[in-house]
Amino acid sequence: MSASPLHDIWEASASQPLEASIGKASQFYVGFALLLIGFFLTSLFGLNNTFKNVSLYGIPASLAFGFGAVYMICAVGVYV
C-alpha cells in the first residue's frame, strides 16, 4: 500500500518553512501606513460620497483598513 499523494506533498514541504511576504520587523510600519491611507481615503469619500467615488475611494479604503488591521494585529502579537 503506497502513501497518498497528499501525504507525499506534506513530507516534501516539511523542509521548506513558510516565509512571510512582509517581515515581522516591518509589519507595524506597513499596518500603520495602510491604516493611515484608509483613514485618508475614508475622509475623502465622506466629503463627496457619490456612486462614482465608491470605486475611487470606498473600495480602496476598505481594503486598506482590512489589511492594515490584520498587519497591526499581527505586529503587536495577537495572531488571527
Automatic annotation (TrEMBL):
InterPro entries, sorted: TMEM258/Ost5
Keywords: Membrane, Transmembrane, Transmembrane helix
One cellular-component annotation, GO: oligosaccharyltransferase complex
Biological processes per GO annotation: protein N-linked glycosylation
Residues annotated as signal peptide: none
Location(s) in or outside the cell: Membrane
Pfam family, one: Ost5
Topology term for the membrane: Multi-pass membrane protein
Residues annotated as transmembrane: 28-47, 54-79
Family per similarity comment: Belongs to the OST5 family.
Function comment: Subunit of the oligosaccharyl transferase (OST) complex that catalyzes the initial transfer of a defined glycan (Glc(3)Man(9)GlcNAc(2) in eukaryotes) from the lipid carrier dolichol-pyrophosphate to an asparagine residue within an Asn-X-Ser/Thr consensus motif in nascent polypeptide chains, the first step in protein N-glycosylation. N-glycosylation occurs cotranslationally and the complex associates with the Sec61 complex at the channel-forming translocon complex that mediates protein translocation across the endoplasmic reticulum (ER). All subunits are required for a maximal enzyme activity.
Subunit structure: Component of the oligosaccharyltransferase (OST) complex.
UniProt-recorded name of the protein: Dolichyl-diphosphooligosaccharide-protein glycosyltransferase subunit OST5
